[in-house]
Amino acid sequence: MRRYDVVWVDAFTTEPLTGNACAVVTDARGLDDATMLAIARETNLSETSFVFAGDADADFSVRYWTPVSEIPMAGHPTIATTHALCEAGIVGRDRRAIRLRMPAGVIPVEIRAGTPVSYAMSQPPPAFLRTYPRAPLAAALGLADADLAPGFEPQTVSTGTPQLMVALAGRAALDRCAPDRAALFSGERDWFSVHVFCRGDGDVALVARHFADFGRLVEDPFTGSATGGMAGYCARYGFVEASSYAVAQGMHVHRPGRAHVDVGGTPPRDIGRITVAGAAVSVLRATLEI
Fold first, then answer.
1. CA distance linking residue 56 with residue 2, whole number of Å
2. CA–CA distance, 266 with 236 (Å, rounded to integer)
3. What is the three-state SS of the chain?
4. Do the Cβ atoms of 58 and 99 come closer than 8 Å?
5. What is the pLDDT of residues 122-147, one digit of tens each?
6. pLDDT tens for residues 197-254?
């Protein structure tokens, strides 16, 4: 029987039971792929994080698993993992940054002191992949073509994980989204999941929803990797003119969360690394015995 410490963290929030939950195994040495997948199925969260020793270029190696498969990079597990390592004292109190190696590459994470502490992950410059016809995607989302933002084509964007970006005309369309998963996730595609968004108001520039195909999970509460891809899309096509702003997600599944985005480079053509920052809170600590 082996024992592993697990911390259940809500990311992109300061309020317990909101934001996006991630179970973090803070020392996963000895776990193989089959066991990590089984643990991810046991937690039944959108992602479970497993932390291993680092190397010359990274403080830690991390692997993120959905209940279906491993993914190369993800946002809220990165925030949750950094928070859990800091809170457990595995990362010293004086550290202001760490580097996490994941299949997509090495991701720097800044630890921003304050009340609350926030964690800012630096995502690679976005890659702009295939575009898709508007009408079939609108129908798969339970919408009409007119509900998509005029002049903006759906496109796969990746800052580590390829996700389909769909800009909507407004909040009413965002609220009405009712995806047909059979239609949305069937056929040939170059994306992992679907991110829909519209312009916000007040102190929030964008409001988003994220649809996935992780077994029983239909909608992800807050998706940090897709937030980076969305920021890249908005910078490339002028959907948002600012380069530093707040993003909200999760209200539609009663788990509101918020992130702050900073777009590097000189958009629209030369877009640099994209920083996605948010707070986190631990809600459960446990010992896994397997």
1. 28
2. 10
3. CCEEEEEEEEECCCCCCCCEEEEEECCCCCCCHHHHHHHHHHHCCCCEEEEEEEECCEEEEEEEECCCCEECCCHHHHHHHHHHHHHCCCCCCCCCEEEEEECCEEEEEEEECCCCCEEEEEECCCEEEEECCHHHHHHHCCCCHHHECCCCCCEEEECCCEEEEEEECCHHHHHHCCCCHHHHCCCCCCCCEEEEEEECCCCCCEEEEEEEEECCEEEECCCHHHHHHHHHHHHHHCCCCCCEEEEEECHHHCCCEEEEEEEEEECCCEEEEEEEEECEEEEEEEEEEC
4. yes
5. 999 999 999 999 999 999 999 999 99
6. 999 999 999 999 999 987 777 899 999 999 999 999 999 999 999 999 999 999 999 9
Burial class (CB in 10 A: 0-12, 13-18, 19+), 61: middle
Backbone angles phi and psi of 70, in degrees to 5 = -80, 150
Answer whether 0.85 is exceeded by the pTM.
yes
Distances (CA, A) of 118 to 47, 115, 124, 199, 278: 20, 8, 20, 24, 5
Whole-number CA gyration radius for the chain: 18
How far apart (Å, rounded) are the C-alpha atoms in residues 122 and 262?
9
CB under 8 Å to 207, separation ≥6 — which residues? 171, 174, 197, 198, 199, 200, 247, 248, 249, 251
Assess contact for 123 and 131: CB atoms under 8 A. Answer: no
